Amino acid sequence: MQQETLERLHSRYLVQAAWTASIREQLFDSIQINGTHKVLEVGSGTGVISAEISQQFPLEIVGVDIDRSAVTFAKNIDPASSYLAGDGNNLPFQPAVFDVAVCHFLLLWVEDPEKILDEMVRVTKPGGWVLALAEPDYGGRIDYPRELETVGQMQIQALLDQGAKPYLGRTLRALFHAAKLTEIRSGLLGGEWQGSPDEEQLESEWETLARDLSHLLPADEIEQFRRIDRKAWKMGTRVLFVPTFYAAGRVPPI
Ligand SMILES: C[S@@+](CC[C@H](N)C(=O)[O-])C[C@H]1O[C@@H](n2cnc3c(N)ncnc32)[C@H](O)[C@@H]1O
Q1: Exposure winner among 66, 117, 133, 244, fewest CB in 10 A?
Q2: What is the pTM of this model?
Q3: Cβ 152 vs Cβ 141: under 8 Å
Q4: 111 close to 205: Cβ distance less than 8 angstroms
Q5: What dotted CATH number matches 3-250?
């Protein structure tokens, strides 16, 4: 991937990580991540979540991503952590090496989320935790004004066309059970609207959306939706809610 694309993705991942920060705070607290030593992030991308963890807690973190250019980018922005190129379907680690294994916006993008979770369980120590920190479910998306509901439906189609799983969120609990995790807890990030996203965030959202929808809608229709969206944000009437699920489960102690 080109540097410019990686920088754009990195900015987007930073925005997404800000949306889901409260889930991480709550989950990390509940599993007492502070007392652990070795944490793995699968699908670490440009390093946003791993860097945050390494800045917050005195532990060793390893990020693994299938995309080598993302790994190089992450190493540059976060030299304190370790990043490796690798496939979550076949993690390059011995069994029971990590205290905690996490992923964030990963499972909806992979072909076989069961396999990825099985691997996360395999490399986590008995008694350790596996956390899916955020997985959206676009089937539960709420839009207001209602003209923008079409955008939500088109986004589902665009995700399906990219091979992603737009309804992954609702399956998270079942996936954790299938992975034989115990003490499973799962939930949903709440919604709250105050003011509007800044210009840069809105631009970046629409840039991604326009690209994703370009084969489904003519450019002028996309532009019309963009105008309705911006106007509603400005008026303070816009509601956009994509249910984002999380789950935590414990690897059975021996
Ligand atoms: C949406 S990004 C999320 C990145 C990061 N977790 C974050 O939230 O900032 C998903 C990442 O998963 C990676 N990925 C997809 N399939 C993977 C696999 N099989 N093994 C490892 N990484 C994978 C992609 O390369 C991409 O960097």
Answers
A1: 66
A2: 0.95
A3: yes
A4: no
A5: 3.40.50.150
Task: Report the atom number in ligand 1 closest to the C-alpha of 14.
Answer: 9
Beta-carbon contacts of 93 under 8 Å, excluding residues fewer than 6 positions away, are 40, 123
Where are the chain's structural domains? 3-250
The torsion region of residue 245 among left (phi > 0), alpha (psi -120 to 50) and beta comes to beta
- Residue 63 Cα to ligand 1 midpoint, Å, equals 10
Q: Which residues of the chain have pLDDT under 70?
A: none
Count the Cβ atoms, other than its own, within 10 Å of residue 211. Answer: 11
So what's the pLDDT on residue 193? 85
pLDDT at 191: 87
Please give the pLDDT value at position 136: 98
Cβ neighbour number for residue 202 with a 10 Å cutoff:
16
The pLDDT value recorded for residue 197 is: 81
Euclidean distance between CA atoms 20 and 37, whole angstroms: 23
DSSP 168: -
Which residues have C-beta atoms less than 6 Å from ligand 1?
A: 13, 17, 42-45, 48-49, 64-67, 70, 87-89, 104-106, 109-110
Chain-centroid distance, C-alpha 105? 2
According to the model, what pLDDT value does residue 67 have? 97
Task: Determine the Cα–Cα distance for residues 161 and 218; give it in Å rounded to an integer.
Answer: 17
Please identify, by atom number, the ligand 1 atom nearest to the C-alpha of residue 67. 25
Residue 202, pLDDT score = 86
Using the structure block, give the residue that is written with the tokens 């021996």: 254
Q: Which of 106, 108, 131 to mutate to test the pocket of ligand 1 (most atoms within 8 A of CB)?
A: 106
Cβ(186)–Cβ(176) below 8 Å: yes
